[in-house]
Specification:
The chain is an alpha+beta fold. Helix content is 26%, strand content 19%. The protein has 11 helices and 15 strands. Strands 2, 3, 5, 6, 7, 8, 9, 10, 11 and 12 form a 10-stranded antiparallel beta sheet that branches. A 3-stranded antiparallel beta sheet has the order 13-15-14. It has a two-stranded antiparallel sheet with strand order 1-4. Strand 9 and strand 10 form a beta hairpin. Helix 5 runs antiparallel to helix 7 and helix 9 crosses helix 10. It is globular.
C-alpha cells in the first residue's frame, strides 16, 4: 500500500477523498451528517449526540479536536457540569488497574487514593489515526479513537494523577464528533479564533453548565462508553516526588498489562519517574528509556550545564524528535520521555542553556495554513522544578499542556482540514 508521512499527506488534496473514504460536494453545498449523505466543508453538523450546527472545516481549530474543561470552583459546580465516569469506566476496571493517588486516606504525599465517585472527565482528544507516523492513503487502516483524560476533582482542585481512557470508534464517528464540537463552537463564536490550547475559552466564559460544555459532554456520551473502551493508561504520584506510569489494554472486559515501548522485556509494564530530593534535582526514569532519542541527561540542571554546547544541542534535538508526531508515536517512545520533555525545555534547556527549537530541523512544523505559529505553544503552569508533568490535565489547579499534545493536536487539525466531509 502506498504510504505517506502524516504531514505530506495533508498537503496533497488530491488524496483527500481516499483518506477517510468519503466524497462530497463543493465547499458551499449543504449536506447531512458524516457518512449519512451529502456534505462538505460547508455542510451541516453531524449527529454527535447534540444539536446540529453548520460546520466549516476551513475554520477547524486546535480547541475543536482537543478540549480541556475548566475546573469548577465547588463540588456543586462539578456535579452540575462535569461528567463522572459511571458510563465510561467500569468500577471493576478501575479497581483492577489500581486506584491513582488522591485525597482519601492520605498519609505521605501521594499515598492517598482517588475515589471512583470523585473521578471526572477533564479533557477530550480526537485522533483519526492513532500512533501513525505515516497515515495510509486508505484511512480504513487507521485506528480512529476518542480519548478522555480523567482526574479526581474535589473542592475545585485535582490530585497529581490522571487516567487516560482510549475508545475505539469508526471514521464516520470521528468526523461526526468533530462536526458536533466544531460546529457548536463556530455557532457560539463565529469568526473568532480561540488561539492556543487552553481551558476551553467558551466554557470559561459560559461556565461548566453552559451550552458549550453541555454539547461536548453530550458528544462524549454519544461516542464513548464502557463497551468501546480499549485501553487505560495511568499516571499516579507515589510517596513524594515520584510518578508511576503504567497501562492496560481491555480484552474481553479484562485488563491486560500494556508493554511500554523501549523498556527491557520482562520489566516493561511500569515505569517510575523520580525527581530527586536533592537541590538541584537529578531526575531519573526506572527503567530508563531504551530509545535512541533518550534525552534524560538534559533534565538535570547541573549535569546539563556541564556538557559541551554540542552535547546539549544533540540532546535537545532528541527531545524535539520525541515531541514530533512525525518522528515518534505512543508506540515508539516510553511514558516518562513524553511527560518530562516540556518541563525539561521550560526549566533547563531554554532558561539555563539558551537552547531554542525555533529553527531546528527536528522541530514539528504543521502543514496547515489554518494554524498560527504563535498558538503552537505548551502551557507549563508550575511552581516547583519538574513538578507539573501533566500532558493535558491539571495538578491541583495548574494546567499542564505539553508540547507533544499541542503538536499532535495540530497534526490532527492539519489532516482533518483537508477531508471531504461527505458521505461514503
Amino acid at each position: 500500500m502506498t504510504r505517506m508521512t502524516y504531514f505530506g499527506l495533508v498537503l496533497m488534496t488530491a488524496l483527500s477523498a481516499a483518506c477517510g473514504g468519503v466524497s462530497g460536494g463543493d465547499p458551499g453545498d449543504n449536506g447531512g451528517t458524516a457518512g449519512a449523505g451529502g456534505g462538505d466543508p460547508g455542510g451541516s453538523g453531524g449527529s454527535g449526540g447534540g444539536e446540529d450546527h453548520p460546520f466549516d472545516a476551513k475554520d477547524l481549530q486546535l480547541n475543536d479536536v482537543s478540549v480541556l474543561f475548566p475546573l469548577p470552583a465547588t463540588n456543586q459546580e462539578r456535579d452540575a457540569g462535569m461528567l463522572d465516569v459511571q458510563a465510561l469506566l467500569p468500577s471493576a476496571i478501575y479497581d483492577s488497574i489500581g486506584h491513582v493517588s488522591g485525597r482519601s486516606n492520605v498519609g505521605f504525599i501521594g499515598s492517598g487514593e482517588a475515589l471512583y465517585k470523585d473521578l471526572r472527565v477533564v479533557a477530550l482528544r480526537i485522533d483519526p489515526c492513532f500512533a501513525a507516523l505515516e497515515v495510509p492513503a486508505d484511512a480504513g487502516d487507521c485506528e480512529n479513537q476518542v480519548r478522555l483524560v480523567v482526574q479526581e476533582v474535589v473542592d475545585g482542585s485535582t490530585s497529581d494523577a490522571a487516567l487516560h481512557l482510549f475508545y475505539s470508534i469508526s471514521r464516520d464517528e470521528v468526523l461526526d464528533l468533530v462536526r458536533s464540537i466544531g460546529g457548536l463552537r463556530q455557532s457560539l463564536a463565529p469568526g473568532v479564533s480561540l488561539g492556543r490550547l487552553q481551558p476551553h475559552p467558551i466554557m470559561v466564559e459560559q461556565g461548566l453548565t453552559g451550552s458549550m460544555s453541555k454539547g461536548v459532554r453530550d458528544a462524549i456520551l454519544h461516542h464513548a462508553s464502557t463497551t468501546n473502551l480499549i485501553r487505560v493508561t495511568r499516571m499516579t504520584e507515589s510517596n513524594g516526588p515520584f510518578w508511576n506510569f503504567s497501562g492496560f489494554d481491555i480484552v474481553d472486559g479484562k485488563t491486560v498489562p500494556m508493554h511500554i515501548p523501549t523498556l527491557p522485556p520482562g520489566d516493561d509494564t511500569k515505569q517510575l519517574f523520580a525527581r530527586d530530593f536533592g537541590e538541584p534535582p537529578v531526575p531519573s526514569a526506572t527503567p530508563p528509556s531504551g530509545s535512541d532519542d533518550d534525552f534524560m541527561k538534559l533534565a538535570a540542571p547541573v549535569g546539563a550545564q556541564a556538557l559541551s554546547h554540542a552535547q546539549q544541542a544533540a540532546l535537545f534535538a532528541r527531545l524535539l524528535r520525541v515531541e514530533n508526531p512525525a518522528h515518534h508515536s505512543p508506540n515508539t517512545v516510553d511514558c516518562a520521555s513524553c511527560h518530562i520533555a516540556t518541563p525539561t525545555t521550560k526549566l533547563v534547556a531554554e532558561p539555563l542553556l539558551g537552547l531554542s527549537g525555533k529553527d531546528a530541523v527536528d522541530r514539528f512544523e504543521p502543514s496547515s495554513k489554518l494554524l498560527q505559529t504563535a498558538d503552537l505553544v505548551a502551557t507549563f503552569e508550575n511552581d516547583e522544578p519538574l513538578t507539573n508533568v501533566h500532558a493535558f490535565s491539571y495538578t491541583e489547579r495548574r494546567a499542564g499542556i505539553s508540547q507533544r499534545t499541542v503538536n499532535e493536536s495540530a497534526a490532527v487539525v492539519s489532516y482533518l482540514s483537508t477531508q471531504e466531509w461527505g458521505a461514503k
